[in-house]
Amino acid sequence: xxxxxxxxxxxxxxxxxxxxxxxxxxxxxxxxxxxxxxxxxxxxxxxxxxxxxxxxxxxxxxxxxxxxxxxxxxxxxxxxxxxxxxxxxxxxxxxxxxxxxxxxxxxxxxxxxxxxxxxxxxxxxxxxxxxxxxxxxxxxxxxxxxxxxxxxxxxxxxxxxxxxxxxxxxxxxxxxxxxxxxxxxxxxxxxxxxxxxxxxxxxxxxxxxxxxxxxxxxxxxxxxxxxxxxxxxxxxxxxxxxxxxxxxxxxxxxxxxxxxxxxxxxxxxxxxxxxxxxxxxxxxxxxxxxxxxxxxxxxxxxxxxxxxxxxxxxxxxxxxxxxxxxxxxxxxxxxxxxxxxxxxxxxxxxxxxxxxxxxxxxxxxxxxxxxxxxxxxxxxxxxxxxxxxxxxxxxxxxxxxxxxxxxxxxxxxxxxxxxxxxxxxxxxxxxxxxxxxxxxxxxxxxxxxxxxxxxxxxxxxxxxxxxxxxxxxxxxxxxxxxxxxxxxxxxxxxxxxxxxxxxxxxxxxxxxxxxxxxxxxxxxxxxxxxxxxxxxxxxxxxxxxxxxxxxxxxxxxxxxxxxxxxxxxxxxxxxxxxxxxxxxxxxxxxxxxxxxxxxxxxxxxxxxxxxxxxxx
Length: 616
Hints:
Elements (H helix, E strand, L loop, with lengths): L1 E8 L7 H12 L8 E6 L3 E7 L12 E5 L2 E11 L2 H10 L9 H12 L9 E9 L4 E6 L8 E5 L2 E5 L2 H5 L10 H10 L14 E2 L4 E6 L2 E6 L12 H18 L7 E4 L4 H16 L5 E7 L2 H4 L11 H11 L2 E7 L1 H6 L1 H8 L6 H14 L4 E3 L4 H5 L8 H4 L11 H4 L4 H6 L2 H14 L9 H30 L4 E3 L5 H8 L3 H4 L7 H6 L6 H4 L12 H15 L12 H6 L1 H4 L14 H17 L7
Parallel strand pairs: 13-14, 13-16, 14-15, 16-17
Antiparallel strand pairs: 1-3, 1-9, 2-3, 4-5, 5-6, 6-7, 7-11, 8-9, 8-10, 11-12
């Protein structure tokens, strides 16, 4: 994994040294994404900057990578990992290509040279890349099918500027962080999620999942190169289970390729246990143990109380799996003060207010893992595609006219000034974005109303909830120089599961039953049938005490920019006094009162960091 940045302009000479300095500065903003190597490539109309995290063939694969052809020079600036590199290399070798490295970068470069934009359709993996074609004087930007890897861009007069993160764009002369009305609507009504393609800051865009951009002397144009398709599901239940087993083993096994230390994240839940079991079996066949990691918080064993949302603690299940598959396990215990101490740094990593301590804890965990490992596999995306969340099952959530993970806007709107909520039409904005997205859901020719409802909610999950979690995982991990792979986001798997009818996914009313049946014989029976348990959160009351103290200090500062947004009297008399008893989740079930306090800390820190003032 890496950080990429660059710009293109057809009205000036971009090969001048001054533009190389600009590119270096842009690349420096991404140094955390790529601590192992750096590079800049320049031509008359295009400049690339790259920061590399070495995973495959560490000694080679310097980027940007270029090749001089008789018709012109072609160059690639790439962030990602291809899982079908060997197949593509054989294909290209048969077409006469001679390779000088073992990297997937060189394979991708030649795929682009031979196939142009059509190359993306043959790629299996997670990626965002820029390809300059000197034969046609054109720049191609491409993002993977489900948006695992980020890619932002903006236009400044005749210049197209792009980067893995917004901070790279802001390092370009004249591109500054600004907010317009829609920016505030995104932040206050929707975050930590955001509208696909929306960069939050004014005039900053993100290439959508499965989208490409072409820039040449005629301007810029975008189009989708990939879209999810509805197809009839003709397999029997038994055949569906067998095919799922094949897809899961294939997706996980392909993602175990690495020339640097690799591990899995293990919570003892269904999803992470499947990944760990397959990986451990592969490693055992190779005569080596698999490293696994689990997370917890100081004194969670003392303060944890079972609930319908979190029925039991992870640690006994983690130990069960580690013993069963003989993994070399590491349990990381996060000190509570770190959750608040890292809130603003987690916001800086994400570049917008995020998920509060859900982000800061992951940032801490990733840093600890990076001390020993460079690559990990994680279980994200399973609940989104198999329907593991409550909103797939509860009637009021299924039929909600707004996002089912934040149906009650009063949880959010209650801490904001009424005039801000009204002026920005925040609740209406969220509802509009939800309905807009529902209408875009791919639909088969014939479908029952019940199946249609769940398909719409499934689409919302892929477009909003899953992308939010993928963004969180990418930013917290790459800010730590750690690569995280997500086998459940394999496009072959998602395409197949998207068309499995709900009666199979949730057979006999059991959540994710088809996935549980696909794990039969792979996992111990008690693990296979364990009820869903979410990402671990702290139950230690010290966190609420510390984050309340942090937000109070902000409110006591008359210069704090958040004063323009929050209803201070209501906040001080309500949420600040009893956040732990504040039962309204404001984004999913992980984020309730204490996390709202943490989000407000991040919101203020974001305004300070970027010099933002609310115009009201």
